[in-house]
Amino acid sequence: MITDRRRAAAFLAIGCMLAASCLSIAADSKQHERDPYALLFGTLYGPDDRPAYGVKIKIRRADQKKAKWELVSNHQGEFAQRVPAGKADYIITADVKGNPKPELTVHVDNDERKDFVLRVKSSDKAAISK
């Protein structure tokens, strides 16, 4: 038979373990905030040369098939994503309804900022400029 004292001690032990694990997770996330990173900053323009708002942007490494990050462009058509520093190629794709999907490959060497522009054309091809 479990007494009230043992039950209270068990709950206290479980509570302490949960608190310790939460603190370690919080400390680990703070550590990653200081890791070096590169910044991909893009602007998306629609077929009418106006900023495209609310368009889903997908970013993936060139050596991977599935997108790792999904963003949405803001009212100025802008979006930004931190990626790990180091040499890598990233493929940025905009999911524009009714038009061809513009796609751009951006190369990152180290912890740097890369600015680029995606322009959607209403014809058969999407033009992309850096």
Characterization of the model:
This protein is α+β, with helices and mostly antiparallel strands and 130 residues long. Strand 7 and strand 8 form a beta hairpin. 23% of the residues lie in helices and 38% in strands. A four-stranded mixed β-sheet has the order 4-1-7-8, with no helix packed on it. Strands 3-2-5-6 form a four-stranded antiparallel β-sheet, with no helix packed on it. It folds into two domains: 34 residues; 93 residues, Immunoglobulins (Immunoglobulin-like, Sandwich).
Layout: helices, strands, pairs:
Elements: H1 4-33, E1 37-45, E2 56-61, E3 69-72, E4 78-84, E5 88-95, E6 103-108, E7 113-119, E8 128-129
User: What percent of residues adopt helix (DSSP H or I)?
Assistant: 10-25%
Q: What is the CATH superfamily of the largest domain?
A: Immunoglobulins
Content-based structural category: alpha+beta
**Tally of domains:** 2
The CATH architecture name of the largest domain reads: Sandwich
CATH fold descriptor of the largest domain: Immunoglobulin-like
Mean pLDDT: 85
Individual helix count: 1
Poorly predicted parts: 124-128
H-E order = HEEEEEEEE
* Largest β-sheet summary: 4 strands, mixed
What's the CATH C level of the largest domain? Mainly Beta
Cα radius of gyration in angstroms? 23 Å
The strand order across the widest sheet is 4-1-7-8
